[in-house]
Amino acid sequence: MDYALEIKGLEKCYSKGNKVLKGIDIKIEEGIVAGFIGMNGAGKTTTIKSILGLVVPNAGEIKIFGKSFKENEKEIKNRIGIVFDNGYLYEDLKLSEMKQIFAAAYTKWDEDNYKKYIKNFNLNEKQKVKELSKGMKMKFSLALALSHHADLLIMDEPTSGLDPKIRKEFLDIIREFIIDVGKTVFFSTHITTDLDKIADQIIMLNAGEVIFNKDKDILIDEHALVKGDKTILTNDNRKWFVALEERGFSFEGLTNQRERVRQEMKQALCERPTIEDIMVAYMGR
Amino acid sequence: MYLSLVKKDFKIVLRGNLGILVAQMLFILIIISVNMGIVGYGVMVTAFGWQLLLSVSTEEKKSRSLALLIAMPYEKGKIITTRYVSPMLGFAGITLIYEGLALITNMNDFFIIKPLTYDVIAITMCAYALFISITVPLYLILSDSVVRGITIFLILGTVWIGYFLWNNINIRNSLLTMTFITNHFHIVCIIVSIISLVISRTISLQIFKKIEY
Predict the structure, then answer these.
(1) How many CB atoms lie within 10 A of CB A53?
(2) pLDDT per residue as tens digits for the range B9-20
(3) Which site among A101, A128, A138 would you substitute to test the B interface, given the most B Cβ atoms closer than 10 Å to its Cβ?
(4) Is the CB of residue A105 less than 8 Å away from at least one CB of chain B?
(5) Which residues cross the membrane (chain A) (predicted)?
(6) Range of B55's domain?
(7) Residue-range domain boundaries for chain A
């Protein structure tokens, strides 16, 4: 099995005693969309920055396309497309000038591809980056990230702050990108509905630790949102829930023992949870 | 790679600042060159270098664009080298502009701007290279406002010391007494410039490698 990204025992400490990443392990197969979720401060951005060489990890190993990042940094970066939450683009430069910086850096820069994206996204190259709206800025970042035939697209909260229409367009572009063989997407987000739509794998981080790293469908199938009368709750079956909320005469909870709950709590109603239900439940543990 | 980064630096400094830069240069030429002769050239060059480093640093800190450059296949060494290449090209550009203006004005018997000699260019380049060598690492580790303060004192101090030495000690004659420097004046200036830039670049690169974004 070929992995686009392998992270082993990644640790990062910004100050003494403040461990942001506590030895995380992540494996992402080639050809999938992997969503990276977690609360603010969980360590998502630090993980992405470690992958891109923006922070120096205290321990751990990062392999991209099966090669050590440290030893093959330039070659690997040439195959990665990056989209940051805030763009990190030079605000005072025109789009065409910003493009020149990208074109000079990547050996496989494809001007025709770039022009195609610029046209599709209705971007005006004569505009300055600071004159673009948040949505247009993200589209421009995506155009830059996709114009050098990247094999791995890494994005840090690319859809945050975008309106639903632009978010949909954004996700459509990701879908189109992933059609080609061997293309992989790894992105962090708070908007779990995006993951419901396009993710194949979900990785959840909490307080610097990977809580789960699973195929999205398996993850959803393993869990159930259970609702029912409070009287059916016992001290024993309470333990089957990841999170349980009791209110008045009823309760609502998320279980990771779906079959057991179905068999032994027949009066309860089991529903298919969303990724958000699962994320919130694990966060509240 | 270098070209795109250098072009980016010049676009940042010239865009939106062009009017101020031209006014600043004219002010220096008229006020300083008239009263202090060739010092105007030194101040003009340093002012441009200062403006370039400050504008680029401010822009990169504001938009955190250095993080983007690092995430791209740009080597850290090349990013840092550009920090020195751009101001040194600025030095060459301003020298040409100054010399052009001196030639034009002198052709019309209007001797406000003194023409440059090789000695002046060499010693100014040496001082400029030292200025760049000190400030580039400072921009990496300190906030722009702090560096701005330090730079003002650095420029004022350098100008004052230079002017004082020129008038009182007659540095040219002092240097002429030293046979080696007499024969290799330009080479000494170039070597000092290169050594200071190389040492500074090494320090900057080490700092840059440790910076986290």
Answers:
(1) 20
(2) 999 888 877 787
(3) A101
(4) yes
(5) none
(6) 2-209
(7) 3-215, 223-284
And the tokens for A111? 């001007």
Cβ within 8 Å, pair A52-B16: no
Element (H, E) at A186: strand A184-188
User: Which residues, 6+ apart, have CB-to-CB distance to A127 below 8 Å?
Assistant: A94, A95
- Between chains, do A92 and B59 touch, taking CB under 8 Å as contact? yes
What mean pLDDT is predicted for residues B149-160? Answer: 74
Which of B4, B71, B212 shows the shortest C-beta gap to A101?
B4
Class (C level, CATH) for A3-215: alpha beta
Candidates B72, B74, B79, B208, partner chain A, best to mutate (most A CBs within 10 A): B72
Quick check: ipTM above 0.90? Answer: no
The pTM of the whole model exceeds 0.90:
no
Are B73 and A107 inside 8 Å of each other by CB? yes
| pLDDT tens readout for residues A101-117 | 999 999 999 999 999 98
Summary mean pLDDT of chain B: 83
DSSP state of A163: -
Residues within 8 A of B (CB atoms), A 73-92 only: 74, 77-78, 80, 82, 84, 86-92
Q: Is the pLDDT of residue B179 over 90?
A: no
CB contact under 8 A, A105 and B68: no
Asked if A158 and A83 count as a contact pair (C-beta separation under 8 A), the reply is yes
Looking at the 3D structure of chain B, how many domains does it have? 1
Q: Cβ separation of A88 and B5 shorter than 8 Å?
A: no
Neighboring chain B residues of A78 at a CB cutoff of 8 Å: 73
pLDDT, tens digit, for every residue of A14-34?
877 788 899 999 999 999 999
Per-residue b/e over A215-236, b at no fewer than 16 CB within 10 Å? ebeebbebbbbbebeeeebeee
Q: What is the pLDDT of residues B16-55, one digit of tens each?
A: 777 877 887 777 777 777 666 777 888 888 888 888 998 8
